[in-house]
Amino acid sequence: xMALSTHWMMDSQRSKEEELLAIGREMKRAIGSxxxxxxxxxxxxxxxxxDLLEDKRYLGMRRHLRKLYIDPMTNQTNWGIVPAPDGGxxxxxxxxxxxxxxxxxxxxxxxxxxxxxxxxxxRFVHGLQNNVGTAAPRSVK
Length: 141
Known about the structure:
Blueprint: H1 2-36, E1 80-83, E2 89-93, E3 124-125, E4 138-139
Antiparallel strand pairs: 1-2, 1-4, 2-3
């Protein structure tokens, strides 16, 4: 019974890791879309994650993200935020302090995740190749 329980917990965590990777990539893509579609020549990052839901820099409705996702590792909406130099948000990460199971099978831009001691080090940051330990984090709810 204990072995079955342990196996189920590992499978559950692996599934959550896959979900975190998918959500993190989607949020990174949305942040990049917001940044790249900045009107004029000055590129800016969103000030809040909700800016990705409705980009108010335009008259018509423009969405970069359909909904704010729940962090699958914490089951909460309070993502860690990687601040941009302009004060906006250039990336997100889970606030979970758990150790990852996955040490392989990452995208090229996520290879540094292999050495990450916690999920907090899995940083999904627009414009950077190295996503681990990027910038001084802040947390948002």
